[in-house]
Amino acid sequence: MDNSSGSPPISTPEVTPSEDSARIPVSVLDTDAFVTEYFSPKPNLTPKDLKASHWVVDWNELESRATGPVFEVGGHKWNILFFPQGNNPSDGCSSFFLQYTNAEQEPEGWGVCAEFCLVISNVDHPDVFSLNRK
Question: What integer pLDDT is reported at residue 133 of this predicted model?
């Protein structure tokens, strides 16, 4: 595949051939349908809150470190920390992190647990995306 534009490759989630023929594309903008199709919370945890945050960026305009808009989930404020050329640029990969924005205001030893998935989609075609569920 020619990638002369410098844009990252875009792929769709892996599906088996039998699933592919019956699968209707799900848009990342349809949060409820997307979560139902692709996100499975851990069976021993009960989600307190669910939120989708959308951040549209022009990769060519970004600095070496970018911070997405703050969003609130479960009473806590978060954002996405993004390194377009990677946390270690020699790796040749982009790096994304979920960042808890109020960490310095919490008492020492305090913590919060968050389960999340990161999806990178095509702005013009929100049913074309890359998904990280690890």
Answer: 61
Backbone angles phi, psi at 19, to 5 degrees: -75, -35
Tokens of 120: 């990178």
pLDDT of residue 36 exceeding 90: no
Domain map of the chain by residue range? Answer: 17-132
Per the CB < 8 A criterion, the answer to whether 71 and 78 are in contact is yes
From residue 109, give the alpha-carbon distance in Å to each of 100, 102, 104, 106.
14, 14, 11, 8
Q: What is the mean pLDDT of the chain?
A: 78
Find, among 15, 17, 36, the residue nearest to 27 by Cα: 36
DSSP codes of every residue in 47-60: -S----------GG
Contact 122, 128 (CB under 8 A): yes
Per residue in 66-88, pLDDT tens?
Answer: 999 999 988 899 999 988 888 87
